[in-house]
């Protein structure tokens, strides 16, 4: 271990990671006789007490259906649901609450856009995605291609896992209708130059959907500065509940799009002669929604903002650099994903040891990581590996967590030697 392991950098001294960790009750437990070291945050993050309490309070005190009852509880539930929408709007720096659609997660947000915005796509239209997309930003577009005859084009990545802007430029054409790009890759950690990607798409007359599932917990977002047409995120990856996510869309686009699902709440009037759809955002929120979801998500956003988005990012940045330093000293370890700009993901393979075995041995040490293809099989194909081991960081991880990871990996090598 290098001497750097013993001297905490400046940010670690001012950022009280142990106090933050204490706000997450689940992290206080032992697993297989060891203190839990949770490094599977790209799969899902743990929830602070503030989020758990918000959910409990909602169900214990305010639960009712929204937008319908005249009674007190319905009024309270509706108010909290709509306050959560305003909190998400502010978090994304969107212009208007009507541009915020609550969905199940990033996956549903992308499917909504592919289904509804894609309704006008025709044979010969083109959709561009990158090699490093999560399956959820590939398969809905493939399904749209099957339905419409549109063609999917793929931007390659280089050996470091960087998006190749020149190759992208070559793929853009007047036929391009949509560009789907991940803001931060879940399998490589690469942070993509989305602003430039969007500007170039717009210059070619195409629209852009940015998959922000992994970026949302790690950097300040600003959909207006990016000028993105659509942006999706998942609440559970940013300390909120599962089953709630957000689709941001520019108002004029959402206005022009047909509903995704039909049912209650998405209509103004229904008759067998003519049904009139509701205004935004309700046009896209058919049926009783996951009311507690946005309420929990707002609590998560409030919590992140109280800690400070920039401070979280700085802490995680230092931790990633420290983790890279420690892993570089492990014999036979190859990092998968070495882009110049990346965040929170340590993806790697160990010579001669299957990632699944790494994950199993680390688990016995109380260390949770993810192994597998991370729903990014084209990335695995690009690197010629069936799977990687992935440790992913969150605001509550500390230097001791990545030190435990490095120790666990040395132990894994011993077991297999
Ligand atoms: N986009 C990215 C970049 C993701 O990482 C994920 C989930 C999704 C979309 C889909 O999100 P969902 O909430 O709708 O499922 N990624 C992962 C992961 O890396 N490990 O487990 C899930």
Q: Could you please describe the fold and organization of this structure?
A:
The chain is 40% helix and 16% strand. The strands form five sheets. A seven-stranded mixed beta sheet has the order 4-10-9-8-7-5-6, sandwiched between helices. A four-stranded antiparallel beta sheet has the order 13-14-17-16, covered by helices on one side. It has 15 helices and 17 strands. It starts with 9 loop residues before the first helix and ends with a helix. The longest helix has 21 residues, at 72-92. The protein has helices spanning 10-14, 17-22, 49-62, 72-92, 106-116, 139-148, 165-171, 194-203, 223-226, 251-256, 292-307, 309-328, 355-364, 377-383, 399-416, and strands at residues 30-31, 34-35, 37-38, 100-103, 126-130, 151-155, 176-182, 207-211, 230-234, 245-249, 267-269, 276-277, 333-335, 345-350, 367-368, 370-372, 388-392. It is an alpha/beta fold. It has two domains: 17-31 and 308-416, Aspartate Aminotransferase, domain 1, CATH 3.90.1150; 52-305, Type I PLP-dependent aspartate aminotransferase-like (Major domain) (Aspartate Aminotransferase, domain 2, 3-Layer(aba) Sandwich), CATH 3.40.640.
CATH topology-level fold name of the largest domain: Aspartate Aminotransferase, domain 2
Proportion in helices: 25-40%
Overall body shape: globular
Number of domains: 2
**Helix tally?**
15
The radius of gyration over CA amounts to 22 Å
CATH fourth-tier homologous superfamily of the largest domain: Type I PLP-dependent aspartate aminotransferase-like (Major domain)
Question: Which CATH class of the largest domain applies here?
Answer: Alpha Beta
The SS-based structural class is alpha/beta
Mean pLDDT score, rounded? 96
Question: Which kinds of small molecule does this entry bind, naming each only once?
Answer: ligand 7TS
Quaternary status:
single chain
Total beta strands: 17
State the major sheet.
7 strands, mixed
Spatial strand order of the main sheet: 4-10-9-8-7-5-6
Strand content: 15-25%
CATH architecture term of the largest domain: 3-Layer(aba) Sandwich
Tell me the distance between the termini. 21 Å
């Amino acid at each position: 271990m290098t001497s750097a392991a013993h001297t905490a950098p400046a940010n670690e001294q001012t950022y009280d990671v142990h106090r933050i960790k204490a706000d997450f009750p689940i992290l206080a437990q032992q697993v297989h006789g060891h203190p839990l070291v949770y490094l599977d945050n790209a799969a899902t993050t743990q929830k602070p007490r503030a989020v758990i309490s918000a959910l409990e309070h909602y169900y214990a005190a305010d639960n009712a259906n929204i937008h319908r009852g005249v009674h007190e509880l319905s009024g309270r539930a509706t108010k909290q649901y709509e306050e959560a929408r305003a909190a998400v709007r502010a978090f994304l720096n969107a212009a208007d609450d009507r541009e915020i659609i609550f969905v199940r997660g990033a996956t549903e947000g992308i499917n909504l856009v592919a289904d509804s915005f894609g309704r006008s796509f025709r044979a010969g239209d083109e959709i561009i995605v990158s090699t490093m997309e999560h399956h959820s930003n590939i398969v809905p577009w493939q399904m749209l291609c099957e339905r419409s005859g549109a063609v999917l084009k793929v931007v390659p990545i280089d050996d470091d896992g960087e998006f190749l802007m020149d190759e992208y430029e070559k793929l853009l054409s007047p036929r391009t209708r949509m560009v789907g790009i991940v803001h931060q890759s879940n399998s490589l950690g690469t942070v993509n130059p989305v602003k430039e990607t969007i500007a170039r798409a717009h210059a070619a007359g195409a629209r852009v959907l940015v998959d922000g599932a992994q970026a949302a917990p790690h950097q300040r977002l600003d959909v207006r500065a990016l000028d993105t047409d659509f942006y999706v995120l998942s609440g559970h990856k940013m300390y909120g509940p599962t089953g709630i996510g957000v689709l941001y869309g520019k108002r004029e686009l959402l206005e022009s799009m047909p509903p995704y699902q039909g049912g209650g709440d998405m209509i103004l009037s229904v008759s067998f002669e003519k049904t009139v759809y509701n205004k935004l955002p309700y046009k896209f929120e058919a049926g009783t929604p996951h009311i507690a979801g946005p309420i929990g998500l707002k609590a998560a956003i409030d919590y992140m903002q109280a800690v400070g988005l920039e401070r979280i990012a700085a802490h995680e940045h230092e931790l990633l650099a420290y983790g890279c330093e420690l892993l570089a000293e492990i014999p036979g370890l190859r990092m998968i994903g070495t882009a110049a700009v990346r965040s929170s993901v340590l993806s790697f393979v160990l010579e001669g040891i299957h990632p699944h075995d790494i994950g199993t041995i680390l688990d016995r040490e109380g260390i949770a990581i993810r192994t597998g293809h991370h729903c990014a099989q084209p990335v695995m194909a690009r690197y010629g590996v069936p799977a990687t081991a992935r440790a992913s960081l969150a605001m509550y991880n500390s230097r001791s967590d990545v030190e435990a990871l490095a120790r666990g990996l040395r132990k894994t090598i011993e077991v297999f030697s």
